[in-house]
Inverse folding.
């Protein structure tokens, strides 16, 4: 439809029909059973007469249910305006690939695009129109459960991976029925709650917001995301959904976003709980004034928008602008031509969990795994005769992780199954040994596990935290391995040093004690449906680990929040002084400052040597470029992939600058004994920062450019900006 047609449609709508477009509810309100409707409607304070006008729904089951709801809606809707169907398609739909934090560690945007396109194809077949993805909340506190859903602690990597998701989900045309629209979340700074506690307050300076937290949201919007979700949290004392500076001045004004803004679940009415709205009427007023178009799963808009407009508190123009934005999104998705967008049971069966999709999920699990430690244990020999697979994840199907809503764990591959398939000649001994739940210290399964370990040529010790320990509402005050797992690790490694630990989880854990005893540690995160096969291929050396950490692993929870791009402080300590407490210096009495495993870290079965870092010139001008070339040599007989990382440091500036800052990266493949050079183009805008007056600037002066990984920069050169 043309803009004229949409405005004509808007002019035909009654006020109730307009309000309906700004409402979103769960699908259980649209069942045929009056008994099922009555309770939720009463709880919401929603008049049943409004149901035919509702503009969007979420959390439906499949294509059959979507088509039934859409058909019933269109039969009741006077103007035949189709509903939008939305869902949290976070890391796969029916085929589940690794959690976003793991995929970010692949440092491979093309892989992320492919996985997102795969998820879009499956979700679209079931009738999903919009996904609440990507989550680009910068995350620097491993206690926060939703770190699993984001891109990690670095602004550049988070932005690059967020953009890749937008591109993968949406493709080149939203009318493509194999694609769905992306909703960027959670605007803004939801990933920085005090004490790492979900939904809690965020206090950040405008300068820090602009420099580190805002860029990823803006990059995804500029990549074409048509929807933004306002976050739950207060930001500097004001809830995001009613934060006029955030939503109107920054998002709508400064950035020019003209798409749809949706609240998070019940966030409008939660303005009353926050204590910034007197009642639901006041909450509706504040949210609408701040440009929130769709209210998710509460009824402040339905109950009070008409009254507020009649009283002159809100204007008809404000309501119309919000409705028009929703109609325009429906038009971009082609819903007026095909309200079902080709969704069908037949299409679901054809694309969901197809062999090609499972193959991509396996590749993603392999590429995102991080080898944290290896003292000669890995890879395992193909000639191994007996393998003991021990620990709570030995035969567990809990490998999908949080937010795998339509993923079926029964269709996944366990570690023991993956190893059995890869080693058909070998004897696989499985012993769960203990629980992975906090507080469960039962060791009654240790005896069988130790017997298996003693009789094995190699041990695969599968440890970690369960999937519901991360994700929304799953913050932790400790970051230790839950239950008796650390004790199990000590005992198993004592009886059989040929032990490789395979870790599963949704966040960085404090692994200092495990690192002290384990000969090898392979971190798989939550790898998805093909996790067991991916583990086997990595342990046996069919695939070479190439993932890097997108979040630092602390030595202890007391270091959190933690990020590699810290400021120097006026009284710093050097890396060589990590193990020495120095009075009147910025350090801990009982722990070093640096993490156990830093951002950008990850080992390989190959041995990569960084031979040189060269600059094509020593001076960069505002309108010029500078080329940095890094040469890497694979001094081993194994094919491997290496993430070449480029860091920058501004030596003197008007505000204190980070000791290191990632400005570029490239993942390259090297054959045995192959040498490759990677060139990065440095431009003036890559050196910009937010100054004391909150202006984005660059300043003339001296800079260092380095390669390596955080806190382990191997080669460094200087240049100047004029």
């Amino acid at each position: 439809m043309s803009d004229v047609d949409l405005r004509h449609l808007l002019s035909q709508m009654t006020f109730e029909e307009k309000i309906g477009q700004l409402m979103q509810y769960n699908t259980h309100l649209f069942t045929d059973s009056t008994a099922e409707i009555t309770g939720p409607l009463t709880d919401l304070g929603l008049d049943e007469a409004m149901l035919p006008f509702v503009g969007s729904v979420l959390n439906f089951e499949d294509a059959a249910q979507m088509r039934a709801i859409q058909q019933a809606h269109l039969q009741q809707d006077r103007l035949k305006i189709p509903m939008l169907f939305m869902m949290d398609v976070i890391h796969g739909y029916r085929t589940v690939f690794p959690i976003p934090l793991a995929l970010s560690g692949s440092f491979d945007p093309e892989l992320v695009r492919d996985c997102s396109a795969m998820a879009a194809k499956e979700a679209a077949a079931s009738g999903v129109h919009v996904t609440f993805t990507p989550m680009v909340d910068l995350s620097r506190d491993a206690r926060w459960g939703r770190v699993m859903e984001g891109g990690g602690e670095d602004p550049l990597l988070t932005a690059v991976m967020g953009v890749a998701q937008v591109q993968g989900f949406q493709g080149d045309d939203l009318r493509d029925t194999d694609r769905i629209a992306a909703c960027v979340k959670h605007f803004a700074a939801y990933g920085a709650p005090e004490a790492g506690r979900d939904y809690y307050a965020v206090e950040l300076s405008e300068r820090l917001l602009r420099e580190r937290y805002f860029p990823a949201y803006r990059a995804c919007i500029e990549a074409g995301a048509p929807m933004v979700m306002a976050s739950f949290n207060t930001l500097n004392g004001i809830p995001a959904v009613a934060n006029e500076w955030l939503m109107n001045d920054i998002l709508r004004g400064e950035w020019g976003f003209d798409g749809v803004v949706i609240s998070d679940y019940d966030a409008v009415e939660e303005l009353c709980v926050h204590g910034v709205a007197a009642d639901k009427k006041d909450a509706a007023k504040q949210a609408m004034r701040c440009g929130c178009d769709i209210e998710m799963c509460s009824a402040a808009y339905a109950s009070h928008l008409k009254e507020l407009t009649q009283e002159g508190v809100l204007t008809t123009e404000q309501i119309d602008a919000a409705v028009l934005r929703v109609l325009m999104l429906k038009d971009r998705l082609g819903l007026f031509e095909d309200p079902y967008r080709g969704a069908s049971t037949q299409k679901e069966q054809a694309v969901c969990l197809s062999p090609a999709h499972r193959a991509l999920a396996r590749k993603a699990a392999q590429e995102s795994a991080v080898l944290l430690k290896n003292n000669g244990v890995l890879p395992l020999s193909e000639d191994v005769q007996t393998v003991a697979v021990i620990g709570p994840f030995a035969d567990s199907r809990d490998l999908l992780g949080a937010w795998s809503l339509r993923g079926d764990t029964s269709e996944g591959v366990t570690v023991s199954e993956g190893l059995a398939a890869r080693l058909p000649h070998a004897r696989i001994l499985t012993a769960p040994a203990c629980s992975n739940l906090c507080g469960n210290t039962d060791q009654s399964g240790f005896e069988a596990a130790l017997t298996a370990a003693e009789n094995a040529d190699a041990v695969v010790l599968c440890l970690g935290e369960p999937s519901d320990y991360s994700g929304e509402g799953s913050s932790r005050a400790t970051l230790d391995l839950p239950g008796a797992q650390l004790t199990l690790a000590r005992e198993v490694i004592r009886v059989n040093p040929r032990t490789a630990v395979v870790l599963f989880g949704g966040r960085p854990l404090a692994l200092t004690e495990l690192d002290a005893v384990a000969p090898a540690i392979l971190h798989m995160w939550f790898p998805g449906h093909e996790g067991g096969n991916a583990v086997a291929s990595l342990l046996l050396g069919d695939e070479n680990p190439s993932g890097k950490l997108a979040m630092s692993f602390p030595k202890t929870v007391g270091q959190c929040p933690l990020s590699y791009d810290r400021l120097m402080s006026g009284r710093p300590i050097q890396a060589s002084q990590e193990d020495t407490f120095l009075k009147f210096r910025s350090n801990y009495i009982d722990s070093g400052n640096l993490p156990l495993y830093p951002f950008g870290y990850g080992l390989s079965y190959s041995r990569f040597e960084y031979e040189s870092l060269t600059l094509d010139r020593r001076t960069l001008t505002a309108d010029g470029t500078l080329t940095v070339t890094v040469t890497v040599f694979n001094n081993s007989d194994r094919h491997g992939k290496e993430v070449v990382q480029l860091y920058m440091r501004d030596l003197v500036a008007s505000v204190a600058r980070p000791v290191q800052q990632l400005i570029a990266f490239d993942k390259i493949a090297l054959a045995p004994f192959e040498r490759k050079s990677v060139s990065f183009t440095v431009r003036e805008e890559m050196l910009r920062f937010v100054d004391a007056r909150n202006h984005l600037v660059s300043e003339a002066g001296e800079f260092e450019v380095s390669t390596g990984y955080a806190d382990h920069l191997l080669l460094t050169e200087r240049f100047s900006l004029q």
Summary: Residues 33-39 have pLDDT under 50 and may be disordered. The CA atoms of residues 298 and 530 lie 38 Å apart. The first helix runs from residue 3 to 12. The chain has 20 helices and 26 strands.
